[in-house]
Amino acid sequence: MPHAPEYVVGMERLVGAVQELSLARDIESIMAIVRRVARELCGADGATFVLRDDGKCFYADEDAISPLWKGSRFPMEACISGWAMLHRESVVIEDIYADARIPADLYRTTFVKSLAVVPIRTASPVGAIGNYWASHRRVTPDELKLLQALADSTSIAIENVQLISELEARVRARTAQLEAANRELEAFSYSVSHDLRAPLRSISGFSLALEEDLGDRLDDNTRSHVGWIRSATVRMGTLVDDMLSLARANRVELDAAPIDLSVIARAVADDLGAHTPERRASIAIADGLVASGSATLMRAVFENLLGNALKFTGRTADPRIEVGSTEAAGERVFFVRDNGAGFDMSHASRLFTPFQRLHSSQDFPGSGVGLATVQRIVHRHGGRIWAESEPGRGATFFFTLSPTSS
Ligand SMILES: Nc1ncnc2c1ncn2[C@@H]1O[C@H](COP(=O)(O)OP(=O)(O)OP(=O)(O)O)[C@@H](O)[C@H]1O
Ligand SMILES: [Mg+2]
After folding, report:
1. What digits encode the pLDDT tens for the residues 12-60?
2. What residue ranges line ligand 1, CB within 6 angstroms?
3. Which CATH class is domain 5-167?
4. Fewest C-beta in 10 Å: which of 7, 256, 329, 354?
């Protein structure tokens, strides 16, 4: 038998409601959808959304021609939604005053003459949807089917919302744990690096004193041993300083202000002696590389990127370094390019990890901390950093700062 046109219209409404419910992210949105659609599905004068709450029926929400029981709690045994939940079945009552299950006193102040209630989640009901009419109206089997289908979708939507909020809470807790662990690690590495400086100064100072005090009495072998101690302490001093600046990149307050990266890069290039005869590198720095960020931290970025560019062009015949910017997908991308030793892109993922180096320290000395520091600074500005290279054909380091700061 073909379905009545109202049933088809009802089905369409139901499908729409199911789609809306699948997007709902909180119980309030679910209730807002359900109370409206429940009424529409069977032309009711009112609908209630009832939740099972600590052994009570909580009339959480309603949509009706005049107020029903929104906000009230009734014992499960003393109301008809409780009956539907306890018996796990729907209730249809054409004349409420003729049905013994209805607490008539609760209805006398309302417009209700007939009703239909369906449980939400039949297996173990978590709530109920009530529909009410101001006339003696018997809900049709088709309408009841639609109403029950709405209740089933509602129960899935409620479960989704619970799942999502549980997951969100777990993510929040986990993030907080990770942040705390990170802060601890940072504080630890900062204080370790800091505290290492004093004993290091002693070793360095006393080995120098030893060399001076013993003077000619040192045989060549011992003298070279003392020399090793001294160069090792210098090396360790650099490492400690690098680790401190890595830790600082996270600790320094990010006081963003308009800055001119061209000016910063030029000052850094001068400090690094890039233009001195023995470095003989040609450095081209574009004008107007304006951004917003921390001048102190961006200076550290160029110290490292230009420092690397100079270092890795150290063995190049005609070293050329370029600082500039390009536009990609509406975003300003800054770059530092050189024509030095380059590296194999298959190892690119290790570039920004502390203490990872792609070249031997015989060829190019270093601690492997510089780019880790640069990445932290760029991330703190809300930007990204990446590199492109080919062995023997130079390297380009690209970075963005957050969209508002570039
Ligand atoms: N411009 C570049 N050209 C070729 N390789 C590079 C360049 N910049 C970085 N690299 C590679 O990435 C590695 C990591 O760079 P990073 O700046 O972190 O360390 P480093 O320069 O070796 O030491 P540090 O900067 O701590 O003194 C380098 O050891 C090198 O292998
Ligand atoms: Mg470096």
Report:
1. 999 999 999 999 999 999 999 999 999 999 999 999 999 999 899 999 9
2. 242, 304, 308-309, 312, 338, 340-343, 351, 357-359, 366-372, 395
3. alpha beta
4. 329
